[in-house]
Amino acid sequence: EPEVTQTPSHQVTQMGQEVILRCVPISNHLYFYWYRQILGQKVEFLVSFYNNEISEKSEIFDDQFSVERPDGSNFTLKIRSTKLEDSAMYFCASSPTGRYGYTFGSGTRLTVV
Amino acid sequence: GESVGLHLPTLSVQEGDNSIINCAYSNSASDYFIWYKQESGKGPQFIIDIRSNMDKRQGQRVTVLLNKTVKHLSLQIAATQPGDSAVYFCAENSGGGTSYGKLTFGQGTILTVHP
Question: How much of chain A, in percent, has pLDDT values that exceed 70?
Answer without folding.
Answer: 100
